[in-house]
Design brief:
The protein is mainly β. It contains 2 helices and 19 strands. It has 2 domains: about 1-80 and about 170-200, Phosphorylase Kinase, domain 1 (2-Layer Sandwich), CATH 3.30.200; about 85-165, no CATH class. Helices cover about 10% and strands about 45% of the residues. It is globular.
Length: about 200
């Protein structure tokens, strides 16, 4: 998969619409009952950034960004302003042997909990804790392409590993064509500029 570690313009992303999406097959019987089959174990986000373009400068930036990504060909980072940060996220417990911990985000709804793997953290925002104590950045290595945290020395048995961080979503354009309407001089309107999350 072609992917570049470049962020979509955050000012355009701020005006976007979208969020998590699932794939479910629903079969309705003649009696009106339903049978539902969930095709994905985890959500896949999709967005429409068309309404985030407000100025000519943003339009120019979007066109340049789209051309550089060659439409659907190359993935990139996207800031979902509705869901981009984590505080006090438990990554696991030390056992005296394990040195690698994956950044994740958990979503709780009653007794149901869903775990989301975070592969594109924003490096400058990441803070790692052992037993609630903030660790020096020299004590671990963060892979910003995978979200994997590697400690120089394994955390002691029973020590809780946690993190605070912001993150991006790996996405691509879900179109190979940009189509704009010139409503008036210097005023453009866009109907649909879709982005879709890519699995890492």
């Amino acid at each position: 998969m072609a992917f570049v570690d470049v962020r979509f313009p955050t000012d355009i992303a701020y005006g976007s619409a979208g969020g998590p999406e699932y794939s479910t097959d629903v079969v309705i019987t003649q009696s009106g009952h339903e049978q539902r089959n969930s095709n994905w174990s985890a959500a896949r986000a999709s967005y429409n950034v068309a309404h985030g373009v407000k100025t000519q400068a943003q339009l120019d930036a979007l066109i340049a960004f789209f051309r550089a990504r060659k439409g659907r060909a190359i993935g990139f980072r996207f800031k979902d302003w509705t869901d981009f940060s984590v505080t006090g996220q438990v990554l696991g417990e030390g056992d005296g042997v394990r040195t690698a911990f994956q950044l994740i985000k958990t979503y709780d709804s009653g007794a149901v909990q869903e775990m989301r793997i975070i592969s594109k953290p924003v490096a400058a925002t990441v803070k790692i804790y052992l037993g609630g104590i903030l660790q020096d950045e020299e004590d671990y290595v963060l892979n910003t392409s995978t979200g994997l945290v590697m400690f120089d020395a394994p955390p002691a048995d029973g020590v809780v590993v946690s993190a605070d961080f912001e993150f991006d979503v790996p996405v691509r354009f879900d179109t190979d064509r940009l189509s704009a309407t010139l409503d008036a001089y210097g005023v453009h309107s866009w109907h649909d500029i879709p982005l879709v999350e890519v699995r890492v």
